[in-house]
Structures are given as structure tokens and as C-alpha cells.
Amino acid sequence: MKVITTIKDMQQEMKKEKQLGRSIGFVPTMGYLHEGHATLLGAARIENEVVALSIFVNPTQFGPNEDFAKYPRDLTKDTALLTDYNVDYIFAPPVEEIYPKGFSTYVNVEGLSDQLEGASRPGHFRGVATIVTILLNTTRPDFAFFGQKDAQQALIIRQLVKDLAIDTEIVILPTVREDSGLAISSRNLYLNAEEQTAATVIHQALSRAKTAYKEGERNGGRLEALIRSTIEVEPRAKVDYVTVADAETLKHIEKLDERPILIALAAYIGKTRLIDNIILNKVKKKDAVGLNV
Ligand code: AMP
Q1: Ligand 1 center to 29 CA (angstroms)
Q2: What is the pLDDT of residue 290?
Q3: Does ligand 1 come within 6 angstroms of the Cβ of 149?
């Protein structure tokens, strides 16, 4: 396993692998690795001869009052964990390597970036699209793996890869959860024991909405209200947004039909902001631009 910190070195290593005819699977992360990341690495390993992972807490995707400074980082622990996952390359550049003085090009995926997370976190997806473009240009992978946990992000990346003619297939994998249903996230570290229990209400609320849908509820607003009221029974929880949306356009849908539907939300548990989602009417379509997992 090689740890690489410069773009140039990473490009050279990846080029060498390509020349040897090896396919490259790439997993971008912000580190503080957990089971969700491990699932992406496992899928990358099955499909590719070379597995590369990046660890980079990307400053441009954090707002001024967000948790960039305190976001958990532990490269030593991450590197040790990765020896178990048969990873070939870790790309872990310092911030100045990615954003040197004079950096001035940003990527903005219009439309999809303004809703849901984008409405709550202005500029977030501009930062995400920019870093992912840089990482894909550095690594040039055959496949890149992303989690449904960040559904809007995955959708935006599929769109940017298509629009910018990047020769990488984007693979989206289902959300890995604790036994309690809580979606695994590096930010779960911020939760104390009571908050961990309180946070399970998020998945309970999404599951309730799924059941209601199965039982015939077809009104988007009513499903949103059901989720909101389920979450807010928990005194430590406060909903930021909840949206029942078309899984391809991310626009709110009031009257649900057979289209794939994304139900996405963000909620505060104490001071910690968590996101989660479910997809209804999922379809498997190869080469899809949408959120097919
Ligand atoms: P992060 O390190 O949080 O930026 O996440 C890196 C990648 O792992 C992203 O594609 C995430 O969507 C994915 N990921 C994070 N948490 C999970 C999870 N619980 N299940 C599946 N994928 C996840």
C-alpha cells in the first residue's frame, strides 16, 4: 500500500497501472473510515485490479459556520485499517496541494445543486463538484464508488461526469446502517450516548414513510409531515428539511406515481446535523444518470 501526497505522483502511479492494463477502482472519502467506506472499498476490490482511496477533508465544501476545523481526522488509524482492506494506493494530499495560491476554477452542476442539501448549505456542492473533478482527473479511474447515504452528491457527480465527458463509471452503493438503523457516518462521533439513541428516530421516520407509501399514501406533503412529526417527538431532534422528491430532478413531488422517489432529510440531533434518505420505486438501469443504486 502506497501513501501518496502530491497530484503529480498520483498521476504517475495511475498512469503506470493503466499501462500495465489494470483497471482502477477509486473511492473518494474524507477519512475517519467506517463500515460505509469499507463497503465501497469491497465493491471496488471485486471489480478492479487496483484500488485507490483518497482521504481529503475538502475545505471548499464547508460553509463558514460549519465543522471543517473539527471534522474528525486520524490518518494513522485510517492507514492501519486500510491494510485489512487490500487497498493499493491512498491519496492523502495536504490542502495546499489541491488549492495552491492562485487556484481559481470551480465546477458548478446547475439545477441539482440548489435543492435539499444545497438549499441548506449554499456553495456545498460547488465544493464537492470541484474536488471530485480534481480527484477524478488525478486518478482517472475506470470506476468510482459513492454511497447512497449522500444521494444528492451521487446524483450530481453522475451528472458532472456525463457533462464533462469524464471517462469513469460512477457506481452507487446502498447506505450501510448500524443495527439500530442509524446511517453510519464519521459525524456520528459527535453524538453522545443519549444522542445516539435519539438519532435512531431518523431511520424510524423514513421507515414509517415507506410503510405508509406501501399502504397507499401517494401525497408527498403528507409523507413529509409524517416524517417531520415522527422525528420531532424526540426532544433532542430538530428537522432541518425533509423533501419527497423525484429521484432524478430532486424536485418536490406532491402526487406520487411509479417514478423513483427520493425521500431525503437533514435533522439536528443536539448540535449535530445528520442526513439520511430512502429511495422508493428503485429501478436498476445501466448507464443511468439518475440515482440507481
Ligand atoms: P465521506 O467520507 O463521508 O465524505 O464519505 C465518502 C463516501 O462514502 C461517500 O461516497 C459517501 O456517500 C460514502 N458513505 C458515507 N457513509 C456511508 C454509509 N453509511 N453507507 C454507504 N456509503 C457511505
Answers
A1: 7
A2: 54
A3: yes
- Grid cell digits, residue 11: 498521476
Angle between helices 151-163 and 124-139 (to 10 degrees): 60
Residue 291 is placed in which grid cell?
A: 440515482
Distance CA 93, CA 265 (A): 31
Give residue-wise pLDDT tens across range 8-58: 999 999 999 999 999 999 999 999 999 999 999 999 999 899 999 999 999
Annotated catalytic residues are 37
User: Would the pLDDT of 94 be above 70?
Assistant: yes
Ligand 1 centre and the CA of 27: distance in Å?
9
Looking at the whole model, is its pTM more than 0.90? yes
Output the nine-digit C-alpha cell for 165.
Answer: 465527458
Grid coordinates representing 207?
421507515
List of residues 6+ apart from 62 with CB closer than 8 A:
68, 71, 124, 127
Distance between Cα 163 and ligand 1 center (Å): 23
Contacts of 241 (CB under 8 A, 6+ apart): 116, 119, 120, 265, 266
Q: Is 29 exposed, middle or buried (0-12, 13-18, 19+ CB in 10 A)?
A: buried
Q: What gap in Å lies between CA 213 and CA 202, rounded to an integer?
A: 17
Q: Which residue has the cell 416524517?
A: 227
| 260 Cβ below 6 A of ligand 1 | no
Q: Are 126 and 113 in contact (CB under 8 A)?
A: yes
Q: Which atom of ligand 1 is nearest to the CA of 146?
A: 10
Per DSSP, what are the bridge partners of residue 262?
Answer: 245, 279
Query: What is the average pLDDT across 246-262?
Result: 96
